[in-house]
UniProtKB/TrEMBL annotation:
Key word rRNA processing present: no
Superkingdom in the source lineage: Eukaryota
Signal peptide per UniProt: 1-24
Keyword annotations of the record: Signal
Name of the protein in question: Fibronectin type III domain-containing protein 7 isoform X2
Keyword Signal part of the UniProt annotation: yes
Fibronectin type-III domain location: 114-201, 202-288, 289-374, 375-459, 543-630
Gene responsible for this protein: FNDC7
Cited SUPFAM superfamilies: Fibronectin type III
Species for this entry: Apteryx mantelli (North Island brown kiwi)
C-alpha cells in the first residue's frame, strides 16, 4: 500500500509538470494534440522522411485498462484515438516506421481525457432573461459549460456546479440546452439536449399620481402576453392590497390616502396562464393642500412669515404671494416660510402648495396680506424763525399716521406723532439734526427712507479774551463753540481792519499799532451754514510803544542818569541796566531816572520799557555802558634784593593793564604791565616810599588806587668775620652800613643753631659755649621794625676746629649769596 501511494503521487507530479510535453527520440519527429473529449484524443504529426507508416499506442497511467493501438499510412498525418476511458491520463507514443518495419523515429506525450458526459435532470425558466439547469455531478469535472441555443445563435456560460443558470436570454423564447463537463484535459461531448422556454418579460411601468388620492399605472405591450396582473399596497403594510387583472395596458387606482407611499407590482401571463417576470415600483400619492394657513408680517421689514399645518407625505412647500404687478415665491421643507422682497404699500394674495416626488397639491384658499406703507417722500426742512424747524412731507398709500424723529449730533432725540404731514421742532445753534419720517399702519412701520440733515448756524464765541503779546500783537483766545469749523477774528480802528482766519479757537493779530484802541469781534463759520454775523464785539487797547533812550550821563563813579522820549501819558517807564553782575533798575512816569550803586569794572546793556494797564511795550534798543575798572583789594611789596622790590596785587574787576609807582624824595620807580605783579629796581635802602596803582580797562577807562606807604630796609653789613674768644667762645664782627642800625646775628651748624642781637650802635656779637668741630653758616641782617628777619643778606661759611676739647682754629670757607 505504501509503495502504491508513492507511485500515485509520482504519477500525479509527473502529470502536473509534463502534461502535453512531447518526448522524442529524434528531434526531427514530434506529435501534438489539437482536441480532447471524454473518450477521444485527436492527434497530428509532421511527415517524417523515409517513413511508410505510423504507429500510435495509448496506455492508461495508474489505471487498470486496455492499451489502444492504431496504425496509419504514410499519407495520413492525423489520427484519432477513440474508446478511451473518461477522466484518465494516457501515455501516447507515436513511431515512424519504414517499409522494412524499422522504427525510424518515435515521440511520446501524456494527455488526460475529459470527464464523462453529464446528464441534464431538468431545465426551467424563472426569469425572462435566464434558464436554470440541474444535473448530476461528473467525476473529475472541475467546471461545466452550459449552452443555450436559439436557431443559429447560442449563449454559453461556465459554472462550477449544479444548478447553473444561463443569462442574457430573450424573453418568451424556446431554447435547446446542453451541458459539457470540463477538466484540465479538455471538455466532454455535449449532453443530450433539453428544451426550455423563458418566461414572459415584466411590463415596464409608468406611474404617476394625478391627484392626492389616486395613482395611474401604464405600460407598453409585452411580447406573447395574454393579460396582466397589477397589485397595489401601502409600503408600510397598513390597509389592504388592491389587485387588478386586465388585458389593457393601463389602469387607475382611486380612493387612496394622500401623500402616502404605495408599492405597485405587475406581471404578464401567457395563454397558458403562466406568469412572467414581475416589476415593482414605489409611488407616493401627491399631497393634499395644507390647512390652517397663517400670515404674519415681519414688523419693520418687507417680509412676511407664512405658516401652516404639516401635510402627510409633503416633502416641500411653495408659498406664492402675488399682486397685479409681481409674483413672489418662497420654497421650504418646513411648515413656515419667509417671503422676502415685498413691496411697501401693496396688497398681496398668499397661498401655499405642497409638493412631493409624485406632484403638487392644489393651492390653498388665498389669504389677503397688506404690507407696511412706503417711506414718506418730498421731505422739506425750513427754519421758520430762530430756534424753530418745520418738517413737512407728502402722504403715502396705506399710511394711517406718521412719526418724525429728530436726532441731534449730541445724541439727544425727540419725535413728533401726527396724522398730518408736518411737524415743528425746537432747535439750537451749532447743531446738526438728522431727520427721518416713518409711516405706520397695522402691518407696522415703513422702511427707513432718506435721512435728512439740517445744520443750524454755528454759535458765537462769547467769552473771548485778548492778551497783549507785544505792542503790535494781540493774542485772542476763546472756548470752541458748537458747529464752528473756522473762526474769523477782526480788529478795527479808524485806519482800517486786521483779519485773522483759523480753525483753532485762538488767533494772533499782528501788525497792529501800539498804544491804539481796537474793536475786536470773533465770528464763527461752518461750511454748510456759513457765518454767524450776530456775534458781539469788545474794545481792547494795545500795549504802549517802545521808548527811545536819548542819552545816558555818568553822574558819579556808580551813578548814571538815563533820558528817553515819552510817548504815553498813562505809562510807567522802567529802565534796566543788565550785566553779568546783575540787574539794576530805576522807574519813572516822566522821561528820565537815575540808577545808583552800579559796580565797578562791569559792562551793562541799558534798555527801557513802558508799562500801562493795556500791557507792556517791547524793550527799547539797548545802549551799552561800561563802569571804570575796580582797584585791586590786596597789594603786597616784597624786597627781593637790596635794590629790587617785587609788588603783587589781586585782580581788579574790569582792568586789563596796571601802572604801579613807588615814589620818594629820592626818586621814582614805575612799572606798566598786563600781569598782576611787577619788579621795581633802583630802590634806595632805608627809604620811605608812597605806593600808587592805576587800573586801566580795555576801552581806556582808568581808576587811580592809593595804598599804604612802603619803607625799604637798611643795607646788609659788610666785612663779616669770625674770631675765637677764650676756650669755647666766638665773636662775630662786621662793618655797619649806618651808625644807628640794629643787626641780628645767626649761626647755623649741623649740631645746633645760635642767635645773638647786640645793642644798637655795636658792630659785633659774642656767642659763648659753641661746639667745636662743626661748619657754621653766619648771617648778619639789619633788624626790622616788626622783628622780621631779612633773607637777602649773604651767608659766610666758617669751620671751627677743636684743640683738645676747646675751640681751635676758625677757618673761612666761602660766601653764599
Amino acid at each position: 500500500m505504501g509503495g502504491g501511494k508513492r507511485t500515485s503521487l509520482l504519477v500525479v507530479a509527473l502529470i502536473c509538470s509534463n502534461l502535453e510535453t512531447i518526448f522524442s527520440a529524434n528531434t526531427g519527429f514530434s506529435m501534438s494534440i489539437y482536441d480532447v473529449t471524454s473518450r477521444s484524443i485527436y492527434l497530428s504529426w509532421p511527415k517524417f522522411s523515409g517513413a511508410s507508416s505510423y504507429k500510435v499506442t495509448a496506455n492508461p497511467v495508474n489505471t487498470v485498462g486496455q492499451s489502444l493501438l492504431a496504425h496509419f499510412s504514410d499519407v495520413t498525418l492525423k489520427g484519432t484515438l477513440t474508446s478511451l476511458i473518461p477522466n484518465t491520463i494516457y501515455v501516447i507514443q507515436a513511431e515512424a516506421i519504414d517499409k522494412n518495419g524499422i522504427i525510424l523515429a518515435e515521440t511520446q506525450i501524456m494527455q488526460s481525457t475529459a470527464p464523462d458526459i453529464p446528464v441534464i435532470d431538468q431545465a426551467y425558466s424563472k426569469l425572462s432573461n435566464s434558464i436554470t439547469v440541474e444535473w448530476r455531478a461528473v467525476l473529475g469535472a472541475t467546471s461545466y459549460l452550459l449552452t443555450a441555443q436559439d436557431g443559429d445563435s447560442f449563449i454559453e456560460t461556465t459554472v462550477t456546479n449544479s444548478p447553473g443558470t444561463v443569462t442574457g436570454l430573450k424573453a418568451a423564447t424556446l431554447y435547446r440546452i446542453t451541458i459539457r463537463s470540463i477538466n484540465s484535459g479538455g471538455r466532454s461531448q455535449p449532453s443530450p439536449s433539453r428544451k426550455a422556454k423563458t418566461v414572459l418579460a415584466a411590463p415596464i411601468l409608468s406611474v404617476s399620481s394625478p391627484s392626492c388620492n389616486s395613482i395611474a399605472v401604464s405600460w407598453k405591450a409585452v411580447y406573447m402576453a395574454a393579460g396582466f396582473s397589477v397589485s397595489l399596497m401601502r409600503s408600510d403594510g397598513l390597509g389592504r392590497m388592491l389587485k387588478e387583472n386586465t388585458t389593457n395596458t393601463s389602469l387607475i387606482f382611486t380612493d387612496l390616502d394622500p401623500g402616502t407611499l404605495y408599492t405597485i407590482k405587475a406581471y404578464a401571463w401567457n395563454v397558458n396562464g403562466m406568469p412572467g417576470d414581475d416589476f415593482t415600483y414605489n409611488q407616493r400619492t401627491s399631497p393634499k393642500a395644507p390647512a390652517d394657513v397663517q400670515v404674519a408680517f415681519n414688523s419693520g421689514t418687507l417680509r412676511a412669515i407664512v405658516s401652516w399645518m404639516p401635510t402627510e407625505g409633503a416633502l416641500t412647500y411653495s408659498v406664492i404671494a402675488s399682486n397685479r404687478l409681481l409674483k413672489l415665491k418662497c420654497n421650504t421643507s418646513s411648515t413656515s416660510c419667509m417671503v422676502p422682497s415685498l413691496q411697501c404699500g401693496s396688497e398681496y394674495s398668499v397661498f401655499v402648495i405642497a409638493h412631493n416626488d409624485a406632484g403638487s397639491s392644489k393651492p390653498t384658499v388665498a389669504v389677503n396680506l397688506r404690507t407696511i406703507p412706503c417711506a414718506p417722500g418730498s421731505i422739506s426742512i425750513e427754519e421758520d424763525e430762530t430756534g424753530i424747524l418745520l418738517v413737512s412731507w407728502s402722504s403715502v398709500n396705506f399710511g394711517r399716521y406718521y412719526v418724525v424723529f429728530v436726532k441731534s449730533d449730541d445724541g439727544l432725540e425727540v419725535h413728533c406723532n401726527t396724522s398730518h404731514t408736518q411737524c415743528h421742532f425746537q432747535s439750537d445753534c451749532g447743531f446738526t439734526y438728522f431727520i427721518s419720517v416713518f409711516a405706520y399702519n397695522k402691518a407696522g412701520q415703513s422702511p427707513l427712507g432718506d435721512v435728512f440733515n439740517y445744520t443750524t448756524a454755528p454759535c458765537c464765541p462769547s467769552d473771548f479774551s485778548a492778551v497783549v503779546v507785544s505792542s503790535d500783537t494781540l493774542q485772542v483766545t476763546w472756548s470752541p463753540v458748537r458747529g464752528a469749523e473756522m473762526y474769523e477774528t477782526r480788529a478795527a480802528d479808524w485806519t482800517g481792519v486786521v483779519l485773522c482766519n483759523d480753525t483753532a479757537p485762538a488767533c494772533t493779530l499782528s501788525a497792529l499799532r501800539c498804544s491804539t484802541q481796537y474793536n475786536i469781534t470773533v465770528y464763527s463759520f461752518s461750511e454748510v451754514r456759513g457765518s454767524n454775523k450776530s456775534c458781539a464785539s469788545k474794545y481792547v487797547a494795545t500795549a504802549p510803544c517802545s521808548p527811545e533812550i536819548k542819552n545816558i550821563s555818568k553822574d558819579a563813579l556808580s551813578v548814571i542818569s538815563v533820558y528817553w522820549q515819552s510817548n504815553n501819558d498813562e505809562a510807567t517807564y522802567i529802565v534796566t541796566a543788565r550785566g553779568e553782575a546783575g540787574l539794576w533798575h530805576c522807574t519813572s512816569s516822566g522821561n528820565s531816572c537815575t540808577i545808583i550803586n552800579l559796580p565797578c569794572g562791569s559792562v551793562f546793556s541799558v534798555s527801557a520799557i513802558a508799562r500801562s494797564p493795556a500791557g507792556q511795550s517791547l524793550p527799547s534798543y539797548s545802549v551799552p555802558l561800561e563802569t571804570a575798572p575796580c582797584c585791586p583789594n590786596d597789594l603786597t611789596l616784597t624786597q627781593v634784593t637790596q635794590s629790587v622790590t617785587n609788588i603783587s596785587w589781586s585782580v581788579g574787576m574790569g582792568a586789563q593793564t596796571y601802572v604801579t609807582t613807588l615814589e620818594s624824595p629820592k626818586g621814582q620807580a614805575k612799572c606798566h604791565t598786563l600781569q598782576n605783579y611787577c619788579l621795581l629796581g633802583c630802590i634806595t635802602r632805608g627809604t620811605n616810599y608812597t605806593v600808587s596803582l592805576k587800573a586801566v580797562s580795555e576801552t581806556g577807562l582808568t581808576s587811580s588806587c592809593t595804598y599804604q606807604g612802603y619803607s625799604s630796609s637798611a643795607c646788609c653789613p659788610s666785612g663779616v668775620k669770625l674770631y675765637r674768644l677764650g676756650n669755647n667762645g666766638i665773636r662775630v664782627h662786621w662793618r655797619a652800613s649806618e651808625e644807628m642800625t640794629t643787626y641780628n646775628t645767626d649761626l647755623y651748624g649741623s649740631k645746633s643753631n645760635f642767635t645773638c642781637a647786640p645793642h644798637s650802635g655795636l658792630s659785633h656779637c659774642d656767642i659763648t659755649e659753641i661746639p667745636c668741630g662743626d661748619v657754621y653758616s653766619v648771617v648778619v641782617t639789619p633788624a626790622t621794625a616788626k622783628g622780621l628777619k631779612l633773607t637777602l643778606c649773604p651767608k659766610n661759611i666758617y669751620s671751627v676746629t677743636c684743640s683738645g676739647s676747646s675751640v681751635g682754629m676758625v677757618i673761612y670757607r666761602k660766601r653764599n649769596a
